[in-house]
Design brief:
- The complex is a heterodimer.
- Chain A is an alpha/beta fold.
- Chain A is built from 11 helices and 11 strands.
- Chain A folds into 2 domains: 163 residues, 3-Layer(aba) Sandwich (D-Maltodextrin-Binding Protein, domain 2), CATH 3.40.190; 116 residues, 3-Layer(aba) Sandwich (D-Maltodextrin-Binding Protein, domain 2), CATH 3.40.190.10.
- In chain A, the strands form 2 sheets. In chain A, strands 2-1-3-10-4-11 form a 6-stranded mixed sheet, with helices on both faces. Chain A has a 5-stranded mixed sheet with strand order 7-6-8-5-9, with helices on both faces.
- In chain A, helix 4 packs across helix 11.
- Chain A is globular, with a radius of gyration of 21 Å.
- Chain A starts with a helix and ends in a 5-residue tail after the last helix.
- Chain B is mostly helical.
- Helix content of chain B is 73%, strand content 1%.
- The chains are: A alpha/beta, B mainly alpha.
- At the A-B interface, helix 1, helix 2, helix 3, strand 7 and helix 7 of A face helix 2, helix 3, helix 16, helix 19 and helix 21 of B.
Chain lengths: 333, 503
Amino acid sequence: MKKLVMKKLAIIGFAAMLAAGCSNGAEESGSSASSADYPERDIDIIVPYAPGGTTDTASRALSSVISEYLPNGYNANVVNKEGGAGVIGTTEVFNAKPDGYKIGMTTVGPMTIKPHTDNTAYTPETIEPIMQVVATPNVLVVQNDAPWQTYEEWYEYAESNPGEFSYGTSGAGLTQHISMEAFSTQTGVELKHVPFEGGAPALAALLGGHVQGALVQTTEAMPHIESGNMRALVNTGSFKTEGLEDVPLLSEKGVDVASDVWTGLIAPQGTPQEIIDVLHDSFKKALEDPKVVETFEKLGVNPAYAGPDEFAEIMQKDYDLNEEVLKAAGIIQ
Amino acid sequence: MEQVLAQVLDLQTLMLVFIGVFLGVVFSAIPGLTATMGIALLIPYTFTLPQVPAISMLLGIYIGGMYGGAITAILIRTPGTPSAAATLLDGYPMAEKGQAGRALNFATIGSFVGGIISCVILILIAPQLAEFGLRFGPPEYFALAVFGLSIVGTVSGKNVVKGLMVAALGLLIATVGMDPIGGVTRFTFGSINLSSGVAFIPALIGLFAVSQVIKEVEQKVTKNNQLKIKFQKQSVSLKENLSYWKEYIRSALIGTFVGIIPGTGTSIATFLSYNESKRFAKPARRKEYGTGIPEGVISTETSNNAVTGGALIPLLTLGIPGDVVTAVILGGLLIQGITPGPLLFQNNETLVYSLFSTLIIANIFMLLIGLFAIRFVGKIVDVPKNILLPIVVTLCFIGSYSLSNNLFDVWIALVFGVIGFLLEKFKYPLPPLILGIILGPIIEANLRRSLIGSSGDLSIFATRPITAIFLGIALLSFIYPLIKSLVGRFKDNAKANEDITTR
């Protein structure tokens, strides 16, 4: 028993170091093979964030079972390429050879917001969507002893006290910020935005009473709602999550805002359709694998499958909406 | 209690803690691998383990990871982690004096003492302290960071003016990248690689390690390299350690305190602790800081490990991770079906106390691994420079690259290597640059957040008690030397303040 654990750990340790140090080892071999035999070696999944976040953990969960579903039993390795709020890694996928050996996980930020603000090399139209993997709505939470019990009470307060209600988000120009800007544009209700470096600091500021509310992902808010420290008033996403069925959607309240924080697989433009199909079918099965389902459940992540066409539509819709809101908010011209 | 002991003293758990600590030390000692990375990569393998062993291993890496950076910082002036940046202020000079063994000993003991004291605080009064951490809003963070900036005087060496210039350069470098409030990029020259700012660890590696290599090469060329270090096994007696008891306790308390405030980070703890150590020292001793004295190593290494217990307080009691490492640990906890928060202490006492016990065990393992490793790793200083330096350069560049698999970061290390070399050559101190880079974003973002909150009213910086105290101390630290020298000049024209005199 002891030996076995040791051995296992030695392998794990070695594998971890390999993964960290030389994950770009096997590249640029065998180029013009026909897509019929695809894949002939392991695939790299570029994750544009540091290890440990939701996108990374979800990718690793998928990659842990993917060899069972990819033809020829090959594996998909997660390569973290963080920086530029996800743009650096996503650009790398955009620039990769369209042979299906380097694909990427990307999210709503680098895909539909950054192209407007950062002059990225790519747009949703110049990459190949494979599938949407995860989607998480955002909820507006307030402290439990806040005077507003419902969305209506809060709305009334915010409307009659323009620029008074302060809310924290995980950062400037991200989905949460844009959702609230869209809300303000449509309703004319002025709010005070206080961006933090991530959802956790925003929630800490709310717990300490330094902001009056916070718009964060449901997964981040859930533990605080369950413990009774916070109350969710409204959901700014497109669907309701487990445990928050009673929280109304903004779209149910007559405001046309429904943006989720999504994560999905993309490939470089020009990847042959057959390869996209192989990748799509394999990863779809992996997403349905009981082990992956269980891991996602424990993380509180919602698997949200959408095929290539539907995923392309979601991307385009968010891309257009964000442009509109960013302009209205004066962030871009 | 029996249940707790049964869970913790299980052979598998003990093994996993040991392996975790070991990996943590190795990961943080090698530039380019971090404890965060180690934890993130091991989380998938903890899926199948039971709760206590799984979390114990992650906590082991965390504890080990705070200590390992000291080894390379002291021996080859390469801080593997940001938390070791302050360690080399006195650690490397000690090694240059041939006291590498002593420096490592103090670092190890300090890490152990810091870890244990913070752990005890965590066990005894976690929930009460968590509330205190929450009182830190944007104005408080701003004040704390400004207070941190007042340390420039302490870490500038002989010439404070040069220190201030370098600190300003650091603040300027910190403005590169995305504006924290508006979300607009600044000074990136259109490069996506700079849009999240200058990568900190590559810059750190460049400033200290690469610059040192350039310096050694220069000395070799100009035949100035007469320095010969020989590593000796030097043990530090218990009596000598006890004589520094004040350093240990003060640094442990500072580390724990900084750890409790989410989002401040270990590098701030180490610099604050170093500063306070110097402030409390006797005037004669104060001049020796930076030349390689035990107090410098003890204050920094004790405080960074003390951050561990502190940072676990908001994590376990409120579910708020204070930094990247604890955020990743939070992910690991959630996967094991543990939701941190007030309910954890009520519903799952056995688990909480099992985790506390493993923390103590992890610290003991760290002490043993550290004391054992010192006997061997210290020999690095005996390696001839013509063999060691190429290895250090290789490590620096691989390390910079592998952090985010980005070649651009290697260029950052190289450019900062040249900057560091030039600054030191013309006697500009490096630590203020680091302080500027670390504190700049905190100061800017929180100043602007505070003013958004108060709708532009500056009086919040005077009316909030914690803010006012920190800003008051900072102001005093800035003007005290001036007053002192004025008074000095008034009384005795010949006598000027030692901190102000230009060489």
